[in-house]
Amino acid sequence: KQWYQRRVAITAGDNCKQTQIIPTNYTMSFVEIPAEVQYKILSFVDPKLIVKEISRLNKQFNECYKSLFLWVELLKDIKDYSFQELLDLLDFKPEVIPKIGYTIYFLHKNNNFLKNPNLDEGIASDAAGEWIKPNKSHWSCNGDWKIERHRGCENFPQIDENPRFNAVTSHMNCERLQDVTPSKACPWILDLYKEGYKLKLSWSVRIARRYDCRSYFEAELHMNGEETLLVRQELDEDCSWKKFEGDYVVTSVKDKVLYKELGCDRQFWAGSYGAKILCPKISYSLTK
Predict the structure, then answer these.
(1) For the chain, give me the number of helices (H) and strands (E)?
(2) CB neighbourhood size of 32 (10 A)
(3) At what angle do helices 68-75 and 98-107 cross, to 10 degrees?
(4) CB 195 within 8 A of CB 189
(5) Whole-angstrom Cα distance, residue 132 to residue 150?
(6) Nearest-CA neighbor of 150 among 244, 243, 277?
(7) CA dist., res. 45 & res. 75, Å (int)
């Protein structure tokens, strides 16, 4: 009622403005309501009902149904489904409405833009040997990287991802780099910036030293032509797994976003290995 009573500016030409008073008994149809109000109203409706019923009422409702910004509002609090479970629940495929599908993907809490994070992609869990040759696919690697079976530790025996292996650096400087540019996965992402949405990049990584020697680790982002140090850690105390994490707002989506890790052994020149790295993660979410 308050919204109906307010003054509405009506633009006539470039410089001429008139005002109109909407009476309290005025009835307004849904199509006359501004788009942002439509999205807000529909954001309180069950998503499945929107898909199954409301989207088929008329052309206007169908346009709302296909709006990315409705689904940003609608799905921002949905956290407990996998991407495929959400698609099944809502009964649509991302190739039919790609913006909606990718929005769900971006908003889902468990997405990880880093592929093959533990260098164990395709490696059998019963692989023989203490040091196992890693699969370096998706990474640009320098140095003698290895992987080992993840055994946990006293204060960090298990993590959510339940990995089979963790990556291990060696006596030499080991570097690896991966492209996590969001626009590669979502070419429509520029549209979000035009509407006032931005991307928040969240990162996390777990690291530990070997039981018999000191080691070193650092991680950084190459974003918008600048290097941002995420963590730099001398691992010279206990062998416990330590978790580091943080958030950054991506101010430009035109440039590449690269994630880089470096680790080495600080104590022995050969025969032992340096920092252990577990489940690095890069994810994105929408923010205003």
Answers:
(1) 9, 12
(2) 10
(3) 30
(4) no
(5) 12
(6) 277
(7) 11
Beta bridge partners of 179: 258
In the structure encoding, which two tokens stand for residue 225, read together? Answer: 């032509």
Calculate mean pLDDT across residues 24-45.
Answer: 77
Residues 6+ apart with CB under 8 A from 20: 7, 8, 10
Query: If pLDDT is split at 50, 70 and 90, which confidence band does 157 have?
Result: very low
Q: Whose structure tokens read 């010279």?
A: 236
- SS3 state at 230: strand
C-alpha–C-alpha distance, residues 237 and 38, integer Å: 57
Helix-, strand-, coil-residue percentages of the chain, each rounded to 5: 25, 30, 45
Q: In the chain, what is the straight-line distance between the N-terminal and C-terminal CA atoms, in Å?
A: 28
CA 251, CA 222: separation in Å to the nearest integer? 13
Q: Are 279 and 117 in contact (CB under 8 A)?
A: yes
Token duo for residue 87: 């698609």
Contacts with 32 (C-beta within 8 Å, 6 or more apart), sequence order: none
Q: How far apart are CA 106 and CA 189, in angstroms?
A: 11
Residues 196 and 129: their CA atoms lie apart, in Å, by: 53
Structure tokens that stand for 15 in this block: 């410089």
* Position 11, amino acid: T
CA distance 174 to 219: 12
Contact 208, 275 (CB under 8 A): yes
Amino acid making up residue 52? K
243-286 residue pLDDT tens: 999 998 887 767 789 999 999 888 765 555 788 999 999 988 87
CA 42 to CA 130: how far, in whole Å?
56
